[in-house]
Amino acid sequence: MSLFGLKFGKKKLREEERKLQANNRDFNLQFEYANNSIKTSKYNFFTFLPLNLFEQFQRIANAYFLFLLILQLIPQISSLAWFTTVVPLVLVLAVSGVKDAIDDFNRHKSDKHVNNRPVQVLINGMLKDEKWMNVQVGDIIKLENNNFVTADLLLLSSSEPHSLTYIETAELDGETNLKVKQALTVTAELGEDLQKLTEFNGEVKCEAPNNKLDKFTGTLILRGEKYALDNEKMLLRGCIIRNTEWCFGLVIYAGPDTKLMQNSGKTTFKRTSIDRLMNVLVLLIFAFLALMCLSLAIGNGIWECDKGYYFQVYLPWAEGVNSASYSGFLMFWSYVIILNTVVPISLYVSVEIIRLGNSFYIDWDRKMYYPPKDTPAQARTTTLNEELGQIEYIFSDKTGTLTQNIMCFNKCSINGKSYGDVYDMSGQRLEINEKTEKVDFSYNQLADPKFAFYDHSLVEAVKLSDVPTHRFFRLLSLCHTVMPEEKKEGNLVYQAQSPDEGALVTAARNFGFVFRARTPETITVVEMGETKVYKLLAILDFNNVRKRMSVIVRSPEGDLTLYCKGADTILYELLHSSCDSLKEETTEHLNEFAGEGLRTLVVAYKNLDEEYFQDWIRRHHEASTALEGREDKLSELYEEIEKDLMLLGATAIEDKLQDGVPQTIETLARANIKIWVLTGDKQETAMNIGYSCNLLNDDMDDVFIIEGSTSDDILNELRDARKKMKPDSFLDSNEINIQFEKSSKKPKILPDEQANGVYGLVITGHSLAYALEENLELELVRTACMCKVVICCRVTPLQKAQVVELVKKYKKAVTLAIGDGANDVSMIKTAHIGVGISGQEGMQAVLSSDFSFAQFRYLQRLLLVHGRWSYIRMCKFLKYFFYKNFAFTLVHFWYGFFSGFSAQTVYDEWFITLYNLVYTSLPVLGMSLFDQDVDDRWSLLFPQLYVPGQQNLYFNKMVFFKCMFQGIYSSLILFFIPYGAMYNTVRSDGKAIADYQSFALMVQTCLLIVVSVQIGLDTSYWTVVNQFFIWGSLSVYFAITFTMYSDGMYLIFTASFPFIGTARNTLSQPNVWLAIFLSITLCVLPVVGFRFLKTQLRPTPSDKVLLKIKEAKKRPPPPSPRRRLRRTSTRRSGYAFAHQHGFGALIMSGRNMRPKSPFATTGTFSPNSDKHKHKGL
């Protein structure tokens, strides 16, 4: 049973192995496996109040105020009414409780949305619509095309031949290319026969739930036979079914046991560094309070012993007090109550209001609104705003976060000529934008209407039947593993296993070489309106070592040709010597393409001799059926035939970045923020994006690639990199080496180390697994943190979180993680700040995030504008708040020396109650909600202004002590100037005003005007609201004071308002106002002088930037034209190709072929016919 969120009763044993039976809920229920509902909320209706109060009283200040309230209920020591504490305490708990309830209600709402998704479950021989949360382990469910996978399933059967199922795993690993899963033959026979599926009673034994996305081991026992199960037969929760009409699966893991949820990490309670600092400061203030109370208690004991003992007739001791020491003891607690305002509870109410207000600014910011998707920015957590102004490390996903998940054929080089750029009449290259005229493909009835190209000369070359150009596009239409789908005549849809291939085949299609259909033995292409069928004789498959793929085809004319595409560094070694001059021209174009961050491939061909090919294909068959060394034998044969190739040219594909990504990254780098990219993509792709978005560039001294396969290799690679960046970091005298040699259980913080240049680091997921081990993690973080940019590729979701955790462990820095998919959830939860992009990969990341928006470029505005403003406002608020409360409270301390240490208050009780809640609350809230040192435009133009937040310069222990001493100084002035002015003073009519009530009124009036002037000095940005709050608060003070001290109030509530007539008698005297003016001058003058001299003599970097802005405002610069960031490159290869090994063999086997489409049959459709022939051709 669950009570207050705690589990009682039998503890569930750790699962070692999972055992389940299909269609047998009774059998599976005995193991108490989790059902498919997920829960991210913290409370329910019954547990909210106790759990929330328990959490709130873990905050030291709240527990302290509860303790004070108890003290105030003891008559012997209570010097203030109970309502002075209980009202603000209840208000604080209520405000925080309501906010927590709203946050948790939203979590309940999102959980409900996911748990109530419909799915078809096989129950008693029928398919019934069930909610996701009711699905259990052992159930058989049916999924259809474009459905999200409900749980982790064993694939049983599908609509495709051989029970293949195509899935998109973007939510798991960030890759958008399709992957293929295949059911066991024994279950594939079940098809969609509900009777057979109902009778299926297979038993599965498999590993316990874990977070390894690429690994699954299990056994299916059916009719006494055992069948091995692996990851290729599993459909994981979070995947999307693509290109498959239907499939059936058996639930293996559900809900929290699924690999997606196992990778999502724990939800932690996030608190800002200022919150943590405030806890420390509150403890220091408590110590200071105890010291003051002890001093006053000792003073009381001495005074009562020395003086009070002899005046008991005039000042009798309280009932029960029989000694001076006991009187001192009671006075200690009385002073604890009086002086508690050094940490007023209204501080926490104000902090919550400020954070809430600054959160609304993010929600309302139109410049962070994305119209195409109607998506505004959203502050999903309201307690972390000021931390946005202190970020040092950003951990970003790549796919969908930096990129759009869209590949576009951008440029190409054919026979030494570059295509893709647009030139004006004078030969100057133009920048392509929305207004640039697109190529008209209307002559091609089968063209893809979404395809855009701007260089008209390429179309002209195609129309003029330029031989190399035709051969180039023929190669692109034949050399691939794309599957075509044509449900309506002429409406072709390509299902590409890699997005790059889809872009290349689409380009060939638009330029008149339309890949139309394929069988295991043929490829049908419509070439310039004429349908041709090529015989597919072999696919020489891609892998990460070969970095190329080839096809061997026989044309309708009987010509044998090998077409090949791959990385330039590989293919250049395979070219015929006659291609040398063409190779030089193509290399120039490749460098240019790579310089623009495009993904490049080189394409080549070779005409084959019939006799040689027959011999080669015989040997190929022998090698492909060999039991030993099959891969090596095939590789040798591939190398043999892929020689003396003839170069055709190169392709350049743009992995489209989100708008403004390079500019955003450049701006964030100028703000001294380090960016690490953590992606599930392969190394080449990740590096290519690194160059295209200006993370990596050729001006860097070096980019280290860590790809060792053992711990020792990786250690050596990391040390070699560190040695190059900072040779003296290996010296025994190095401070960090000395610090980490000392054995200590206390967590050690790694200081910042400066490298001798600008470096980048790239590490693969396999190597990262070793590097994250305890013996290597320090070396990894030392080396990586010296680099300007770190790219981790092929990483699992859990590794992303581990990298973030590593930096948090060793660096005293605030981290931010940003991503858009379920594979980013764990790092979003682990980082201090999690940002979700509502992109193309579902809403998992957004639901787990603290802030969300639609485009990566909004991150600079979130940090440099909203984050910086929130941080500055919070720091100003805290400095002012502590100052005004020290000034307010310590007057009591000085008064104690003149009142026999009797715990009498200086001020009227009503002033004490209203000081923080009414008189001084609105001006400081006005400053904390509206203040800004510079506006948003200058904040983005001068990112250097962000640096003080990273270094925590605006509020730290030193700043706190300065505020404390300023408060002590002000309290001395505020007590002794009025005291001296009142001492033995008479009014103009000769009557005395040197009484307690007049003194109290004068002190509190001085205090209020001084703190109002101080808030005016602290305000940088004046608005009508600020003016109204400051003048309004002073007006309210005088209005309330004159009302409460009036004759009428005294007559109605005699006991509550004893200060009858004090206001009109005291404040009508000129000498009183002169003393008030003197107090204000003495309090404010040192502050103004110190600030002026500091700015002039020792300006901070921020002061210098602000001075520049001040000068620039006098002569505003013309708006800089928006430019596209380009870089020149000497890098030879921009190769990147997201392809999966083994797909070629699948195509040649025909296992993934569907029954032929009526439109795909050879010769049934020809754009060359009269019906479709274009008049212009």
Q: Looking at the structure, what is the overall shape?
A: elongated
By DSSP, the count of extended strands is 37
Rg over CA atoms: 38 Å
In total, the number of domains comes to 5
Compute the number of helices.
40
Which strand order do you get reading across the main beta sheet? Answer: 16-37-36-35-17-31-34-33-32
Q: Tell me the distance between the termini.
A: 79 Å
Average pLDDT, to the nearest integer? 84
How would you characterize the largest beta sheet?
9 strands, mixed
Low-confidence parts, pLDDT < 50 over ≥5 residues?
1-11, 1121-1130, 1156-1177
Query: From the structure provided, what is the oligomeric state, counting identical versus distinct chains?
Result: single chain
Q: What percent strand?
A: 15-25%
GO cellular component, one term: trans-Golgi network
Biased composition (Basic residues): 1111-1130
InterPro entries: ATPase_P-typ_cyto_dom_N, ATPase_P-typ_P_site, ATPase_P-typ_TM_dom_sf, ATPase_P-typ_transduc_dom_A_sf, HAD-like_sf, HAD_sf, P-type_ATPase_IV, P-type_ATPase_N
Binding site for ATP: 397-399, 501, 542, 565, 599, 679-681, 794, 800, 823-824
